[in-house]
Amino acid sequence: MEVYVPVIVMFAIGLGFALVSIVASRIAGPFRRNRAKSDPYESGIEPAPSSSGPTKFPVKFYLTAMLFIVFDIEIIFLVPWAVHHDVLGIFGFWAVVMFIGALFVAYAYEWRRGGLDWD
């Protein structure tokens, strides 16, 4: 059980920080409702009212989110491998080569769909 004490302490610190931040923002921040604050807002596009149903967002936003997820997953798996690559040996090396190959497929898809064009 004493192995889990640091994890429990870090969880408690994170939860405490979140609660203190929420309470402090409610106490310190101004709270005035108006029409602009109540309107929905998504990814820099102000939605226009439409009688034909919900408006569609450009695929560009989803491609940007996918690119973030690809690189986030890459960091999550490659940093522990870089720390312990000598322990994992040749199996760890080939596992990472296959992982980077899969990431390259996602990266090539992003590139082909125009997710890297920032215009």
Task: Give an account of the 3D structure.
By secondary structure, the chain is mainly α. The protein has a domain at 52-113. It has helices at residues 5-28, 35-38, 59-83, 85-113. Helix 3 (59-83) packs antiparallel against helix 4 (85-113). The protein is flat, with a radius of gyration of 22 Å. It starts with a helix and ends in a 6-residue tail after the last helix. The mean pLDDT is 82.
Judged by helices, strands and strand pairing, the structural class is mainly alpha
Shape: flat
Distance between the termini: 54 Å
Helix percentage: 55-70%
Low-confidence stretches: none
Portion in beta strands: under 5%
Pattern of helices and strands: HHHH
Main beta-sheet annotation: none
Number of strands: 0
Average pLDDT metric: 82
**How many helices?**
4
Overall radius of gyration: 22 Å
List keywords for this structure.
119 residues; mainly alpha
Which secondary structure elements does this structure contain, and how are they paired or packed?
Blueprint lengths: L4 H24 L6 H4 L20 H25 L1 H29 L6
Helix pairs in contact: 3-4
Produce a short descriptive summary.
This protein has 119 residues and is mostly helical. It is built from four helices and no strands.
